[in-house]
Amino acid sequence: MAWEARGDDPCRTARAADCGTSARYSDGMRGRSTTPRTRTRDRHGRGLRGPLVPREVPAWRSRRDRFDDRVLDAVERLEQRWARQLEGVEFAVEDIPPSDPAPWEHDEVPLGRFFPAQGGLPPRVVVYRRPVESRAPDGPEVGALVHEVVVEQVAHLLGLTPEQVDPSYGSDED
To answer: Domain-by-domain residue ranges, the chain?
Structure first.
């Protein structure tokens, strides 16, 4: 049994190294080999996964990306008319509104909010993605609702009515 304690059995050491278990090395230390292994296949032996959808296909963009594009489109439409007044205003998208409602929000989930300039922070308009998407059934309706929310918040920012900010506000031709 002296050879087991010293690790002199070459068969035992070779078997342990082959199966990936810890082995006793010639310097007497136990552990795994220190040579890095490169992984060429997943644990099921099928190879590395590739992209599910090619970049050229519209399904490659996520709902979040498409929603961000709709907000940017609505802002660009308003900037054509109100570029000077909207200079320095930040537009943002968040998933859900914070859990502490504003005093004027009586058991309502806001679709967007306007935050006035405070300290060194610029004025900010935030559109909440999940509430907007839950109120509109599909793409064109989501785009129209996003435009209405952005117009309402910009109107609040400028101290005007939404109809003054965008004459097409409230019409069905979006």
So the answer is: 1-50, 58-165
